[in-house]
Design goal:
Blueprint (H helix, E strand, L loop, with lengths): L3 E6 L7 H9 L3 E10 L2 E5 L4 E3 L5 H7 L4 E5 L29 E4 L25 H4 E6 L8 E6 L4 E6 L3 E3 L3 E5 L3 H7 L3 E7 L11 E6 L2 E4 L24 H13 L3
Parallel strand pairs: 1-2, 1-5, 5-6, 6-14
Antiparallel strand pairs: 2-3, 3-4, 7-11, 8-9, 8-12, 10-11, 12-13, 13-14
Helix pairs in contact: 1-5
Amino acid sequence: MPPKVLLITNAATTRAGWVLTALRLMGFTAERAYTYQSGSEIRLALPNAEHRLDIDDASLRNRLREYHAVLIVQTGETYGNANSLIGYTFRFLGWNAPQDPPFAYFGIHFATNRPLAFPSDFPLVRPDRANLASTAHKIGPYVFQAQTQTLRVRLTRENAECYLPIATDAEANDGFYVWRLNTTAHNALGSAGEVLAEVIGEDYVFDTTPICAYRYKNCYLLPRLVRALDAPAAPWDAPSKRSGCSTRSSASGLRRAMRCRL
């Protein structure tokens, strides 16, 4: 049986087709889920069930254990999106039992204005919109193009350097940012924490090494999939030529992200 993957988005069912297509072409059994609000409840709609995200729902945790991996993806999110529903998936940061699947977050920000509880040992500095210069690293202007946010990156597992689009966070009308590492918390995690990719300064001078991909226990914090959700949902649709992404390059990025744990 091929690995079974769940893709969670913050949008309705017309937004995730491109990523699903890429996953299926790589041989995964891919399903989609999305968040929505019902009254005062934040809910996650799965293919055959719904569960609450705003509480610690044991039934949801058991349901997600049916998957080999869970990918959480959001496009266009900025620090100004404090209460977007996708942020409630950070609850999964605490689900690290051997039975739990790996959770991969693509471009979901964790700034301090997002009113959610994070684990006390979380080793990435939470960006503060009032003090971004000290709590994040700016890497480029506020331009939603992959080539603008492509920087030289060191992949630590592979011990290799390459140029990759690494847009993680964004402040509207200001620029794109990547993360700062709390080295004390990182060192305390031991093997439970791992820097997966760091930025090598060329056009920018950084006071500390910026981080653009990190493994926290069973969870992976990764850059956003640039323009990867532009195509409508369809089981085997080819990606739109207008999306700015090629099948080869975007599928390769997804494959590498999946390989972090798989």
